[in-house]
Amino acid sequence: MKNNDMKNLNNNSVQALQLMLEQQRKEILSNGKTLRVDFNVDKDELLDEVDTASHDVEQGMKMRLGNRESLYFRKIEEALLRIKDGTYGQCLDCGQTIGAKRLEVRPTAELCIDCKEAAENSETKNAEGRRHKSLGEMVNFKA
To answer: Which domain holds residue 101?
Structure first.
């Protein structure tokens, strides 16, 4: 691990990160974006094609934001489970300790910086065989 100058987390740091994750979880649940997105349309608002197109763009944005929030909510839940079972701060790939500074910046981090960089470098830069990030599956565009 080339980042051995980073300090490890202590119990107080983990508790502080846990409180932050729980607060973020509560905020997501209270604003309801992960649970519903308002897609109701008043027919009077869609008077012409431009209004309809504008509405479609707005609805697409709401869906993307809701999806991002849902994915982040899942990452928060997984991080809280790792705190509970005592594996928080351990890289899921190599088992090494994730640096405290990395976890302070990204408390949902699952990989140490070395494994994350290796994963990003191994991703192809074109659509052929690109790995679908949210599902972890290989997408075959030739089939």
So the answer is: 11-112
Q: 131 by DSSP, 3-state: which?
A: strand
Q: Is 60 helix (H, G, I), strand (E, B) or coil?
A: helix
pLDDT at 82: 94
pTM beyond cutoff 0.85? no
Taking CA atoms, 86 is separated from 81, 89, 90, 94, 100, in Å, by 8, 9, 9, 16, 15
Q: Of 3, 12, 17, which is closest to residue 114 (Cα–Cα)?
A: 3
Tokens of 108: 């949902």
Element (H, E) at 138: strand 137-138
Measure CA 114 to chain center.
Answer: 19
What's the CATH code of the domain at 76?
1.20.120.910
